[in-house]
Amino acid sequence: MHKKKSLLILLVLVISLFVIFSPTVMAIGDPITDPDAYKPGGINGSDTDIVASKAGVIFNTITTVGVITAVITIIVIGIKYMVGSVEEKAEYKKTMVPYLVGAIMLACTSAIVKLIANMVEGLG
Fold first, then answer.
1. What is the tens place of the pLDDT at every residue in 92-106?
2. First to last CA, the chain
3. Helices and strands (DSSP H and E) totals, the chain
4. How confident is the model at residue 113 (pLDDT cuts 50, 70, 90)?
5. How far, in Å, CA of 99 to CA of 77, rounded?
6. Cα(120)–Cα(4) distance, rounded to whole angstroms?
7. Pair 124, 106: CB distance under 8 Å
């Protein structure tokens, strides 16, 4: 047990050292002596539209999967509640409340993110 713990600590230390002392490479002119040498790649409106549309698809997919999972879970808990004994009903009531709160938070979070995205899109 002590050997595994020591090996884990050594592994974390080595990974930390690799992260801390990793070399940084810049493939541009020296921005300190010549600030005009830094020219980031051109980003135009079509690039942002592509990223926004793909992010929207990903967000909608995640939201849909989350809502479907929440509804199925609540249905299963509800059915178990209906056919359970008195002690089981008390247990299912305790587990149903966090699932309902989670489902409401999922719906509210996705609605707030969509609202913010629409507001920002209207500014541009």
1. 888 888 888 888 888
2. 59
3. 3, 0
4. confident
5. 9
6. 51
7. no
Residue in 111, 97, 117 with CA at minimum distance from that of residue 66:
111
Cβ-proximal residues to 51 (8 Å cutoff; 6+ apart), any chain: none
Model-level pTM?
Answer: 0.53
Dihedral over Cα of 59, 65, 69, 70: its sign? positive
* Residue 31: band (very low, low, confident or very high) from pLDDT cuts 50, 70, 90: low
DSSP letter for each residue of 21-61: T------S--TTT-GGG--PPP--HHHHHHHHHHHHHHHHH
CA distance linking residue 75 with residue 81, whole number of Å: 10
> Which two structure tokens, joined as six digits, stand for 89?
């009903």
